[in-house]
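can u do me a favor
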């Protein structure tokens, strides 16, 4: 009964900051790109408040 409701709720869920950071890091093409992305995250790329 609650299965479709749970699926719908999961589809609308916004990814957390950690999930967005990991997805960004996972897209790195090589080691240098990974290091560049890590530096961007360290400077607060995903943690800026509006």
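np, heres the sequence
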């Amino acid at each position: 009964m609650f299965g479709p409701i749970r699926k719908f709720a999961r589809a609308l869920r916004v990814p957390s900051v950690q999930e967005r950071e990991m997805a960004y890091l996972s897209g790195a093409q090589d080691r240098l790109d990974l290091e560049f992305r890590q530096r961007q995250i360290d400077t607060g790329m995903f943690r800026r408040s509006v």
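The chain has a mean pLDDT of 90. hope that helps!!
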